[in-house]
Design goal:
10 copies of one chain form a homodecamer. Chain A has 6 helices and 2 strands. By secondary structure, chain A is α+β, with helices and mostly antiparallel strands. The first copy, chain A, has 2 domains: about 70 residues, lambda repressor-like DNA-binding domains (434 Repressor (Amino-terminal Domain), Orthogonal Bundle), CATH 1.10.260; about 60 residues, Cyanate lyase, C-terminal domain (Cyanate Lyase, Chain: A, domain 2). Chain A has a two-stranded antiparallel ribbon. In chain A, a hairpin with a 6-residue loop joins β1 and β2. The longest helix of chain A has 25 residues. The radius of gyration of chain A is 18 Å and the shape is globular. β2 of chain G pairs antiparallel with β2 of chain H.
Amino acid sequence: MLSRADATARLTEAKHEQGLDFVDLADAIDRDEVWTASLVFGDVSASETEARELCARLGIEDEAVVDALQREPYKGDEEATIPSDPMLYRLYEIPQVYGDAIKACVHEEFGDGIMSAIDFECHVDRIDHDDGDRVRITYEGKFLPYKKW
Amino acid sequence: MLSRADATARLTEAKHEQGLDFVDLADAIDRDEVWTASLVFGDVSASETEARELCARLGIEDEAVVDALQREPYKGDEEATIPSDPMLYRLYEIPQVYGDAIKACVHEEFGDGIMSAIDFECHVDRIDHDDGDRVRITYEGKFLPYKKW
Amino acid sequence: MLSRADATARLTEAKHEQGLDFVDLADAIDRDEVWTASLVFGDVSASETEARELCARLGIEDEAVVDALQREPYKGDEEATIPSDPMLYRLYEIPQVYGDAIKACVHEEFGDGIMSAIDFECHVDRIDHDDGDRVRITYEGKFLPYKKW
Amino acid sequence: MLSRADATARLTEAKHEQGLDFVDLADAIDRDEVWTASLVFGDVSASETEARELCARLGIEDEAVVDALQREPYKGDEEATIPSDPMLYRLYEIPQVYGDAIKACVHEEFGDGIMSAIDFECHVDRIDHDDGDRVRITYEGKFLPYKKW
Amino acid sequence: MLSRADATARLTEAKHEQGLDFVDLADAIDRDEVWTASLVFGDVSASETEARELCARLGIEDEAVVDALQREPYKGDEEATIPSDPMLYRLYEIPQVYGDAIKACVHEEFGDGIMSAIDFECHVDRIDHDDGDRVRITYEGKFLPYKKW
Amino acid sequence: MLSRADATARLTEAKHEQGLDFVDLADAIDRDEVWTASLVFGDVSASETEARELCARLGIEDEAVVDALQREPYKGDEEATIPSDPMLYRLYEIPQVYGDAIKACVHEEFGDGIMSAIDFECHVDRIDHDDGDRVRITYEGKFLPYKKW
Amino acid sequence: MLSRADATARLTEAKHEQGLDFVDLADAIDRDEVWTASLVFGDVSASETEARELCARLGIEDEAVVDALQREPYKGDEEATIPSDPMLYRLYEIPQVYGDAIKACVHEEFGDGIMSAIDFECHVDRIDHDDGDRVRITYEGKFLPYKKW
Amino acid sequence: MLSRADATARLTEAKHEQGLDFVDLADAIDRDEVWTASLVFGDVSASETEARELCARLGIEDEAVVDALQREPYKGDEEATIPSDPMLYRLYEIPQVYGDAIKACVHEEFGDGIMSAIDFECHVDRIDHDDGDRVRITYEGKFLPYKKW
Amino acid sequence: MLSRADATARLTEAKHEQGLDFVDLADAIDRDEVWTASLVFGDVSASETEARELCARLGIEDEAVVDALQREPYKGDEEATIPSDPMLYRLYEIPQVYGDAIKACVHEEFGDGIMSAIDFECHVDRIDHDDGDRVRITYEGKFLPYKKW
Amino acid sequence: MLSRADATARLTEAKHEQGLDFVDLADAIDRDEVWTASLVFGDVSASETEARELCARLGIEDEAVVDALQREPYKGDEEATIPSDPMLYRLYEIPQVYGDAIKACVHEEFGDGIMSAIDFECHVDRIDHDDGDRVRITYEGKFLPYKKW
């Protein structure tokens, strides 16, 4: 049984050797590039069809990799921490500064509840701009009102 | 000199008494509701015009509040931590799960650098959906390539 | 505008003076005792009717309390921590010991996803037993499968 | 002497190769699936009979595995932490939000004491529901009143 | 409703003014001095009789104190931490050094389970010794075997 | 030079193969079982005689193990932390709840100082009891008064 | 009953008003300046004579201060942390860099044990030097060998 | 290029095989034993002469070790933490209890500044004493006044 | 005796009322603006002349403020932490990313030692630039070689 | 695909064998020594030309190293922490003491915003000085004003 970490190493190696981007892999399985990258990194799980198509695109014939891609992963780390890598850190700095405001706006619009991070999708887009192109990261999740009982 | 925390208390109190939403306040100063909420909570600073218009809309005539809104705030907390409030936590759970994928997609599209959290804007929108409306949170910041020297 | 913490103090004081249990308050608003206790402690929000009925049962006539009960609360603390109170600690010790097993059983039964803690309810029951009565705490939440995109 | 971690690897590998679920293993040793999964993961210890039956069901003939399953395990980690995996995190988010309410309800019903996490059992069940099936996790432990002396 | 912390302050003040030791208070309520000190500090709860007798011994006539002593306390702190006070620290240094050995000896003698910290008592004694008197701290708790299910 | 961790592995393996308890090993070197277990786990150091007798009882003829047992160990971990294993955790929960009371009783009896954790011994005993046998853990250390200068 | 923190404030205020150094106070009670400063800051306890003489030297006539100085203090903080003040930090940086070496030299000279921090004294001295005077901080504590049992 | 950790292992092994103390090694290079132990543990760097003499004394002829001893080391750990080993912990407990007093005495004697931990030396000495010998640890560093600009 | 925090509040209030910048205050005492701001915030100490001139410039006639400015401050916080304010965080992000490189370059240029943070000065300058002005922060401290002994 | 850590090992080894400084490597690729050291340590990424020239200077002919140098690195660690190495620590001590002053001076000069740590450069210089040479570390980054929206 191939570990999820070893499967990631195999997939990353093949992607690198073939000079493919996550966009290419996403096309092969008809998914978004962020989700596809998450699959390669072992944070989401694939259907058997997705797993086979991804391996086919990467020229991987080992059933153990196909199998590993379908297992429910352990997501994140043993302890939730804020990383120091600057690109990653910005994703944590934003809610440090604007989190209370985002929470208040969600509550005013929707009431007491949350944006789901499970029934959720996320996109990365380039926005052309004369003063320098911009990165747009979109979080979109179902609003879940707090159930009362 | 009114502290920023006291100014927030005064603004929140007035907003509550008058039954206004952040959308109403945003209209009064011609800004987005997330930015406006951040201003009320003391995480961003206003121009004098914005400060006056916000106070006017809220019926606050105290110059000390107008003044406090223009000061550069201390943003966030003395130590960066991950809060347990579920709506806020989701904003940290997303990069815990999808952060590596987002970073990889940004790098493939833009090269080595980051999305700015300063030359940055953020929006909260409602997306109507038959299976339940969805919250869309958009982060958009200028791509900053790492300078070499 | 009464702070949520002050409202909790008012409600707790009245409950104590009148010798009422959370079960009594739950009956008054037709909710479960756990949810009702969460409302008193400021972790969930009430409808106007619930807020009025709760205050009526407690003999509180102050509109500020009725109002505070309806506001979306900041839940939990600024940082997620494991408390040392032994009754509370047991709720964290259980997933420390059995968490991986629970996660595996949920995945085998439902696939990749989570039990919602929002579309969720929780009950505390006494189970009579000859060797000493038992506490049953039931967590029940909607299964949310991970969305793909 | 086979380490407990190596025994877990052996058991998990065999379970995967034979396509068995924890429910199947639980049937083989006449235990609940959560307890059985905990045994496989090395968080509880088995009697010799249970250890032999589990190995038999998995086709493992190595006495070292039978032996390892009977040893008292080191449960949890060297430091109690809150993990970031979303399914696991929900088990900690619930007491972050509802913990004070649960504690209060236990005390009103039983007096000063705790729900044991040792004289304890835990179940995972599927609850069919038209709006989406639900996960029910039941914690049941003996009430232990604080001894005075 | 007197807070538990205020009750502790009242009790400590009275004890100090009257020059009483915890041993004196323990005699008054027919309990051990450690338990009695825990009651004064707000870590355990008393019966009505115990509460009345303790207040009587201390010359406190306020019913609010009698009442506070009977409430189930929040024990310990919001986060379990290791204090730096040297007398307290030694109680944590001992399991840092000898904890694994203690755990192993308990398991060899009793099997898989724990010493209860609830069905538990604790004593502090002076042991006369020519090379300097010794402090004996005795922890005694019911052995609780792990339940299987 | 055999590392202390490797020596522990060798000793534990031999103890397991020969089906010996820590009580047996303690008899062989005429020490208490808790101290003997600490020696095996590498938290205390032995005299040459003790080291030889322990190895003899376990059938270990390797001088490197005899040597390792005599070295002053690094005790505990690089950072003092509270473990999540329930048996170990109880040893920390007790001072979380009763620590202030223990400290106060020691000070009333002995004055300002501490119980030594070095000039110290510790015992684990079984106390027979009709309602279930009890674990008694005794900490006994010399009282050290704070020196003034 | 004056709190220890309030006593410290009273003592510090009087010391400042009278322009006295800790050396002056140390002379008054015939103790070292470090110990005397620790007494003022509330980290050690005085005899009645010392307490009276210290108050006399400072012109404090309040018996509550005399009393507070004799109580056993809670030393240090609720959690052991490394402070960022540079003078204090150096006291922690030294064992971060040289701690393993100090430990090894103590063990080679004395065997397995520790330098007591209780049967201990500490001095601060100025060492004149042409390249700039030097601070000498001397820690001296009784060697305590680990007891075996 | 031999890593500093591997060099430490080589040096420690040789020291052990030859039955040498740090005092012996210190004599060989004409340095103090604490500094010499720090060199062996990889916390300070040697001149080429010192490196050669140390290796010569230990019978090590490998140039890679000589080379490693001269490299500027990474001192301490990736994160400053307080260790639980009792001998090491005492070095941190002392400033937890007496740190404020030490800081105050340094300031009264020298003014605003620090004791350098770089232009610094440290000694371990045995002080004979009838009631048991004592460990004296001397920290001596240049006083550095805060520069103004 | 005015606390340092209260003195800061007094100074900040006066500076704000009079519309003065730190540059103006720096001119008044003939110091750099960064050092002057540190003095106002209570992180450095002034000579009597500097204290008087600063108060004179701010129109403060209270001797207690003059006095407070001359006291040796407790610098930083009780625990060294990384703040979340983005401007402050950048000062920590830089050594997170470039710290190893800076350390290596210092060592190659100067040998084993450090840049002093005490015999140190720091400047903030604006660098005009066509693509947007730049902030230059200069740290300059005496090189301190590690002393051997 | 060579990991970034392995590439660093290869580069460091070659640099050491050839006796080159970072200044030499910086000359070879026409970059600053700090940036070049960051490249070797894996904290920044090179263009293909830079990667080839660096490898050429070091006599490395392996394409895998050239390739690794061009990949976007994971910068810093999984969790932002303050290291205990004294040279590195000083880079954190400075903002602990002077950070608030630096922030205030930046705001007074530039308004609400930050110094970029991305559009940024850093230099290490030796400043000759009669009282001992000084290390100058210059941080220079573009001022980024907070965007409003």
